[in-house]
Amino acid sequence: MGVRRSRTRRNDDPSPTHLGDPRDLWWFPVALALGLLCACPRDGRGRSGPPPPDVYAVGWEASPNRPTAVAWKNGSAMALSDGSRSARALGLAVRGQDVFVAGAVTDSNTEKDIATLWKNGEPTALTDGTWDAQATGVAVSGGDVLVVGFETDPRSGHTVAVQWRNGVRRALTDGSMDAKAWAVAVAGNDVLVAGEEGPGARSMVAKVWKNGAPSPLTDGTRASRVSALAVEGKDIYASGSDGNVAMVWKNGRALASLTDGSRFANGAAIAVSGGNVYVAGWVGPVATLWRNGTATALTDGSRIAEAWSVAVAGADVYVAGEEFDDQIYVVELWKNGVPMPLSSGMNPARATAVTVVGHATALDPDQMPAWRDQSETPAVTSPG
Q: Which residues pair with 246 in a beta bridge?
């Protein structure tokens, strides 16, 4: 559950500050190196052990009147934008020393959102501001940087699901209906995109595009979406919602309904590690983590809270989201269910993605419950 925090700004306030040219200050590498040298754990014989993993998260914080795109590393915030224009960070990928962030920055002339990719803090516009556009997810495979999102066609008013490979645009839908892409993953030579498409808000079909070809996961009788993807071996997992029910799909078939539909729920994020499936999302006002289908409430329901992303490193599970606290949304990072605020609580904020890179303690499989596999449920396809 959340803890009510003082509204007084402190010298150690974790809210982001724009730090000038991010190429000069990206994560303060000298200070980080010194910190890691000092912080390495010792084993029982006094020898230095491996360093702890690096935990990255992204999102945004209003400062003071507009949202500012923010990246956090090990709890320290860095603003990706200067606050002169609205900006939001929505997707995250880390490859080696490179940090990729997908999001949107509002054009000061047209007031339209520009889909944007930051690499190590340096932004690149993926669109020109003619259409409203957002980049929502990013993945890196070999030398390719894959970004997905959506654009709004001003002529029809419909949104178009879009994929960019190394900056080159590819429309996944034709604009005849509304469509949005929310996540991207790579399985071997295949590019997978998660999202939704349909004629209206109440009849969206959850879809996964494989190399541009769509596969429906729901029948369109209820508003549905695929919010996230995870790949383990030859298996492709997806999470999202079908009507009010939080869902998990495996290889195009319904694996499990995580909730009973009595309250709106969403499986906003998914991670798979060692055959164990973790889903982060919410049930009503409660931020929730499911592990192999078993739900754990991260908050007590007294305030609205949402979990937007999950990452697993060995025995540790990290969840990023936010909780409403005294009329302000505060970014929370839960590690094994224990919350740590990343934003100050002075301004509204949201965390949209988290990932963990580096050493982690091995997981004991005997501590994990068996997954309640419902993979024999028939695949659901759209009518006609």
A: 241
DSSP 179-204: EEEEEEEEETTEEEEEEEEESSGGGP
In a domain, 85, yes or no: yes
**Interatomic CA distance for residues 184 and 163, integer angstroms:** 9
Number of domains observed in the structure of the chain: 1
Specify the CATH number for the domain of residue 323. 2.130.10.10
Is the residue at 219 inside a domain?
yes
- Cα gap 65→34, rounded to integer Å: 36
202/220 Cα distance (integer angstroms): 8
Q: 244-252: which pairs have CB atoms within 8 A and are 24 or more residues apart?
A: 246/279, 246/281, 246/283, 246/290, 247/206, 248/277, 248/279, 248/293, 249/206, 249/208, 249/217, 250/375, 251/375, 252/208, 252/215, 252/217, 252/379
Enter the pTM of the model.
0.83
Tell me the residue range of the domain where 102 lies: 59-359
> Is residue 345, in this structure, part of any structural domain at all?
yes
pLDDT in tens, the chain (384 residues): 333 333 333 333 333 433 333 333 344 333 333 233 334 444 445 555 678 899 999 999 987 678 999 999 999 999 999 988 999 999 999 999 999 999 999 998 889 999 999 999 999 999 999 999 999 999 999 999 999 999 999 999 999 999 999 999 999 999 999 999 999 999 999 999 999 999 988 999 999 999 999 999 999 999 999 999 999 999 999 999 999 999 999 999 999 999 999 999 999 999 999 999 999 999 999 999 999 999 999 999 999 999 999 999 999 999 999 999 878 899 999 999 999 999 988 889 999 999 999 854 443 333 333 343 333 322 222 223
The DSSP output letter for 42 is B
Q: Is residue 383 part of a domain?
A: no
d(CA 228, CA 242): 14
CA distance 308 to 93: 15
What backbone torsions phi and psi does residue 34 show, to the nearest 5 degrees?
-65, -40
Task: Find all residues with CB under 8 Å of 271, minimum gap 6, and list them.
Answer: 230, 277, 278, 310, 311, 312
User: What Rg value do the Cα atoms of the chain yield, rounded?
Assistant: 20
